[in-house]
Design a protein that fits this description.
295 residues, mainly alpha, two-stranded antiparallel ribbon, 2 strands, globular
C-alpha cells in the first residue's frame, strides 16, 4: 500500500472514531465540556474535506495525528467509567435507559407527546416484562418446575427484544441527525447495496411492508461479512436482538425424525454427548469483545 493510500485509510479510521465518540457522548447525561461535541463535528468535517480534496501528504498525517491526540485527551474523562460496561445486568434488574435528548428534541419529525409515551410507558413495559420473565425462569430452575417454561420463554423473547431494540432505537436518532453516513459505513453500504439511495429505498420499503407490527433492521452478518436488511414481526418471533448465538440445537423434525421418530426428548438428551465445547468457548470469547452499555 502506497503512502497516500495509507494516509487515506488512516483518515477513514479517524473519521470512524470521531463518529463513535460523538455517538457515545450524545448518550451521556451530563457533558461539562459544552464545546466538545461541536469540536468533534468540526474535526470530522476537516477530515472529510481532506479526503475529498485528496490532501494526503505527510503534513496532513502529522497534523491530524496531533489533533486527534489532543481531542482524545478531552474525550477520555467521559469514558472513565468503562468498567461499568463490563458489568452484567443481574437477573430481573434491567432498567430503562435515559433518552440522550429531550422529549421534544426530535420535533417536528416526532412529537414530544409520542416520545414521552413511547419511552416512559411502552419501553418501560418491556423492561418490566423482561424482568418478570427472568425472575420466573430463575424460580423454575430453583424449584425444578418447568410447567410454564414455554410461556416465560415467550415473554422473555417478546419483552427482551422490545427492550433491546428500543435501546438501540433511541441511540440511533438525534436532533442533529439526517444527511447520509460517511467513512467506512458508507463504503460498506455502497459495496453491499450498490448506492446509498438503493439502500435507503430498500430499507424504507422493508419498513413500510413489515407485516402487522414490527421493525426494519439493518444488521451486520459476521459470517457472510456484509450488511443485510431484515424485517421483524412484533419484536422477536422467539429471539432477542442485540444478542449473539453461542450454542444452538436444531429441533425441526428433519434434524431427528428419521432416527428418533416422535421422540424429540430422547434426541435432545442424547445430543449433549456430542456438544463440542471448545467451539462454543471460542464463540463466547469472540462475543465478549462486543461491549454495550448495560441496561
Amino acid at each position: 500500500m502506497s503512502m497516500p493510500e495509507q494516509i487515506r485509510q488512516y483518515l477513514f479510521e479517524v473519521e470512524e472514531w470521531l463518529e463513535e465518540a460523538a455517538l457515545q457522548l450524545c448518550g451521556r447525561e451530563l457533558i461539562e465540556d459544552d464545546s466538545l461535541l461541536e469540536t468533534l463535528e468540526n474535526f470530522k468535517k476537516e477530515v472529510q474535506k481532506q479526503l475529498e480534496a485528496h490532501m494526503l501528504d505527510e503534513k496532513v498525517l502529522e497534523e491530524t495525528s496531533d489533533h486527534l491526540h489532543q481531542l482524545s485527551e478531552r474525550v477520555q474523562p467521559y469514558f472513565a467509567d468503562e468498567e461499568r460496561v463490563m458489568e452484567s445486568v443481574p437477573i430481573g434488574q434491567h432498567r430503562l435507559p435515559p433518552l440522550p435528548y429531550a422529549y421534544n428534541a426530535l420535533e417536528p419529525y416526532i412529537a414530544q407527546e409520542i416520545m414521552k409515551l413511547h419511552h416512559t410507558k411502552h419501553h418501560q413495559s418491556y423492561v418490566d416484562g423482561l424482568n418478570k420473565a427472568e425472575k420466573m425462569m430463575k424460580e423454575a430452575r430453583e424449584t425444578k418446575n418447568y410447567e410454564l417454561i414455554k410461556h416465560w420463554e415467550r415473554e422473555a423473547a417478546f419483552h427482551g427484544s422490545g427492550h433491546y431494540l428500543h435501546s438501540i432505537f433511541w441511540e440511533i436518532m438525534n436532533p442533529k441527525g439526517g444527511g447520509k453516513p460517511s467513512g467506512a459505513l458508507l463504503q460498506q453500504i455502497e459495496k453491499d447495496f450498490g448506492t446509498y439511495e438503493q439502500f435507503k429505498k430498500h430499507f424504507s420499503e422493508a419498513a413500510k411492508k413489515a407485516e402487522g407490527v414490527g421493525w426494519a433492521i439493518l444488521v451486520w452478518a459476521p459470517r457472510s461479512r456484509r450488511l443485510e436488511i431484515l424485517q421483524a414481526e412484533r419484536h422477536q418471533l422467539m429471539t432477542q436482538w442485540d444478542t449473539i448465538p453461542l450454542l444452538v440445537l436444531d429441533v425441526w423434525e428433519h434434524a431427528y425424525y428419521l432416527q428418533y421418530k416422535n421422540e424429540r426428548g430422547q434426541y435432545v438428551d442424547n445430543w449433549w454427548n456430542i456438544v463440542h465445547w471448545p467451539a462454543v468457548s471460542n464463540r463466547f470469547n469472540e462475543a465478549k469483545k462486543v461491549k454495550w452499555q448495560p441496561y
